[in-house]
Amino acid sequence: MDKIPAANGEGDRGAPMAYPPAESGRTAPRTPPTARTCSSVIAGAAVTYTLRVSARARSLRLVIRPASGLEVVVPRGTPAHEVERVLRDKARWITRTLARVARESAVMAPALADGSILAFVGRPLQLAIRTGAPAGRFHAAISGETLQLTVTRDTQEEVRTALEAWYRRQAARVFAERLAVCNAAYGFSYGRVSIREQKSRWGSCSRRGNLNFNWRLLLAPLPVLDYVVTHELAHLKEPNHSPRFWALVAAACPEYQTQRRWLRQHGRELRF
Ligand SMILES: [Zn+2]
């Protein structure tokens, strides 16, 4: 199998950036602490933050989350000048982290609108949204470089649901094709092929030789998709990640390290 790297800044469910870094095993306060919105000038720019007074906090702590931004958690009785001092001291970390989280959030969830560009098996498709589909139904068809999508109402939720259903349907066909291409070098026999949305995997190979693939790989460049297909095929012979396994992958996919690196760096961006 190939794992999806742990997500940072994935909506608000992602691990928050924190200073100092969170200690493992720390639990959330049982009673909601009091919070208020404040603002301060950090590195020459006005920054709004949430000041949270916590009965359980033992020291001042900075947390940055994609949706809620900067939060300053302080023990009861912390003077305002102490908060200002830490904000000044940590100005560089704050501005850098806020910028990075904003950048990642933008990559995570771009709005889907008429004219949006989507990656599809290594080529860009321009989305053309039309309305008028019967309730609960949608229609999608590729015409040249355009993906014509007809939904009932043009809402983000409906467009996203329809697109995902379409990508999943396409995935069954695309993976069947790429399996045939990638398996030409091996000639292995395999069982059932399923398309899933595995939260933490790009693909997997069961003991019975059934193969599973994550439909989100259709958003990746074709060589990356082929690498994952080759990886799972190689597991049919080597159900491990031994040097023998990697040699088998390399035999069919000499550039596999480049594709692996791409997946590690960009895997979290494979969404719409
Ligand atoms: Zn593997």
Keywords, separated by commas or semicolons:
272 residues, alpha+beta, Zincin-like, 2 domains, five-stranded mixed sheet, four-stranded mixed sheet, 6 helices, 13 strands, 34% helix, 27% strand, binds zinc ion
Describe this structure in words.
With 272 residues, this protein is of the alpha+beta class. The chain has two domains: 7-106, no CATH class; 117-269, Zincin-like, CATH 3.30.2010. The chain is built from six helices and 13 strands. It has helices at residues 80-89, 91-108, 156-182, 222-237, 243-252, 256-266; strands at 2-3, 17-19, 34-42, 45-54, 61-65, 69-75, 117-120, 123-131, 139-143, 146-151, 193-196, 201-205, 211-214. The chain has a five-stranded mixed sheet, covered by helices on one side. Strands 1-12-13-11 form a four-stranded mixed sheet, with helices on one face. The protein has a four-stranded mixed sheet with strand order 7-8-10-9, covered by helices on one side. A hairpin with a 5-residue loop joins strand 12 (201-205) and strand 13. Helix 3 (156-182) crosses helix 4 (222-237) and helix 4 (222-237) packs across helix 5 (243-252). The longest helix is centred in the middle third of the chain and has 27 residues, at 156-182. Mean pLDDT is 86; it is low at 6-15 and 22-31. Zinc ion is lined by residues 1-2, 231, 235, 241.
